[in-house]
Specification:
Layout: H1 11-19, H2 32-43, E1 67-70, H3 83-97, E2 101-110, E3 114-124, E4 131-139, H4 146-164, E5 170-175, H5 178-185, H6 192-200, E6 204-209, H7 217-230, H8 250-255, H9 261-265, H10 270-281, H11 288-294, H12 312-315, H13 322-329, H14 339-342, H15 344-354, H16 360-363
Parallel strand pairs: 1-6, 2-5, 5-6
Antiparallel strand pairs: 2-3, 3-4
Length: about 375
């Protein structure tokens, strides 16, 4: 047979060629731009102004020698300390800094998820009865959280300092967002803009964390201003980016704020991963509050300190876990929910040491 002679196709070849049905419709193609437009339309954001994109981050070596960040309050180891003790500690700390001006900042969101607002109150005089010289309010995002509006308030304060303060001023910015303080002190990209603005000022600036909702006069005034800002007329500012949609669960968002894929891969076994996920969600069977939700006969109070509810937030602030937290996490012991993702292995160790029965088998 000649090499050029036609050879009939084999049976396998015929089966292969006839296996796929003929295409009657063109493939429906999509990409990220198409999906983004759909999401914007579904969220009703088409006509709202958008927040400008930040194209460049500020270098981590940016000189900010004039800025000090205190993410703890001397004498206070828990946000659940007696109110009188918190007020006394906050007043003592602010007085010790001897500021020429004290600025209180706060963020607000309706139900913690929508209609944001940022409030800033500028004061002079003693912190027990501050003289409010002015205030500023700024309407926030439609889909947001109280935590998400805190940086906006701090940026407003930074702009005020740049325009009104000089080298003779000592400025205290008092905020109840411990996570924002931690972000600033660790040079997180999320707070680069604030850090850069503060570094440009000639004033000596101290960012001081104070517990919120403790009847500290300046903080209460800032809280009222933030709520007022959320009610301002006009369109909401749309965030420049969305991660998994609007923040419906701000506490879970806060718990996952320091997520690091490399650290997650270091978690050695499935049981650790499962319990960490439960703690980050706020529902662990080793917490009395969760047990009470499933069985009302179980007392939700903390077995260590007697606080009203043993939630995951309380567990990370409880005086009864303070010694273990400081031993395991060191200076970041009071960071709160972000500890669960910033230091996942250490969080497992804390659970083993302080939650009865938690991961007991693996810890042996």
């Amino acid at each position: 047979m000649s090499a050029l002679q036609f050879r009939p196709p084999t049976q396998n070849r015929l089966l292969f060629e006839n296996a796929a049905p003929p295409r009657t419709k063109a493939l429906k193609r999509t990409n990220w731009a198409i999906e983004a437009k759909k999401n914007i339309s579904n969220l009703g954001l088409d006509d709202d102004p958008r927040k400008p994109l930040t194209h460049f981050n500020h270098p981590p070596w940016l000189d900010s020698a004039n800025v000090t960040v205190n993410d703890t309050l001397p004498g206070i180891t828990s946000k659940n300390a007696p109110e009188a003790t918190i007020i006394e500690a906050a007043v003592k700390q602010i007085r010790s800094l001897n500021p020429t001006i004290t600025i209180y900042t706060d963020g607000s969101a309706s139900a913690g998820t929508t209609n944001g607002g940022a409030g800033v109150v500028y004061t002079t005089g003693d912190p027990t009865a501050p003289d409010i010289t002015s205030k500023s309010t700024k309407k926030g995002s439609k889909h947001t959280s109280s935590f998400g509006e805190e940086p906006t308030a701090m940026e407003e304060a930074s702009d005020y300092i740049l325009q009104n303060c000089n080298a003779n001023d000592v400025v205290v910015i008092a905020t109840d967002s411990q996570s924002l303080c931690s972000s600033l002190s660790h040079h997180s990209p999320a707070s680069d803009t604030i850090r850069a603005k503060l570094a440009k000022s000639e004033a000596m600036i101290i960012v001081q964390w104070i517990p919120g909702h403790s009847n500290i006069p300046g903080n209460e005034a800032a809280d009222a201003a933030a709520k007022e800002a959320a009610l301002l007329l006009g369109p909401h500012l749309v965030k420049s980016s969305f991660f998994n949609g609007p923040g419906r669960y701000p506490k879970i968002d806060e718990a996952y704020s320091q997520l690091n894929s490399k650290k997650e891969k270091m978690i050695p076994c499935r049981s650790y991963q499962v319990e960490l996920a439960r703690l980050r969600s706020g529902y662990s069977m080793y917490l009395r509050d969760t047990q009470h939700q499933l069985d009302e006969s179980i007392d939700p109070k903390c077995p260590r300190c007697g606080a009203e509810n043993e939630t995951v937030e309380h567990w990370l602030e409880c005086p009864g876990t303070a010694e273990a937290r400081h031993r395991i996490f060191g200076p970041e012991a009071n960071l709160g929910l972000p500890l669960l993702t910033k230091h996942p292995l250490q969080a497992v160790t804390l659970a083993q040491k302080t939650l009865v029965g938690c991961l007991a088998t693996e810890s042996q």
